[in-house]
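Deliverable D5.2: sample structural annotation.
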Amino acid sequence: FRRFRYRSLSLGSAASGTTSNISQVSKLLTQSLVDLSAATNDKDRAKAFNTVQAAYGKLETLVVPPGLLLQQISLSYQLPMVLGTVNDLGIAEILSESTDRGGRMSSKEIEERCGLPAGKVSRFLRFLAGRGIFEEVSPDVWEHTEASKLMDSGLTYEEIVRDPKHRFAKGTPIPAWISHVAGLCGMSAISMVTAFREDRYKKSYDVSETPFNKIYGTNATFWQWLEQEGTVLN
């Protein structure tokens, strides 16, 4: 894959944006960052933040070669899946229970708690650290960031292991949201590619004939399925 990626770039793939367009978006991004720093209330802060995100996204489409952009988008499923896996394993809670004065813990220590091999712990957390979720303070040693702290449900790791199916009903909301989106919604979204190979799903506007219905084997609508007695989301 790596060879293919660089080969695609060497075939003359160039960024699609003109110098003028890139300059305009860059100025907008710079100004919106200034506005974000100067914002004194939630309304202005939200407006500036949304502009920063939009400008950054647009700038990326202008400077990244189209072939590489498509490859990056096709691989974007990795981030929520890794986030969901780390969330499900309770690694944030494990790290919060570190006895180190700085709240640090090695991949090997995390393995001893949750059973995920240290090499995989490092790969997962290093991947998330690139987005500001966890921080690698020295090789294979981790500490929380402001973002990863929000993944801590407030439960002990022993509580999570004892009752994994109902853990998200007991703790803070963000871990529950991550599990819901990366698990239930994520699996439904991923199944869209295969579902739309069948006319039943490709041509239908029926809310009971969706990729969700295919992967979960139900004729109920999404909301009906959630309301069924005995449905447990983990």
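Annotation notes: The radius of gyration is 22 Å. The first strand starts at residue 105 and ends at 106.
The annotation will be released with the project's public dataset once the embargo ends.
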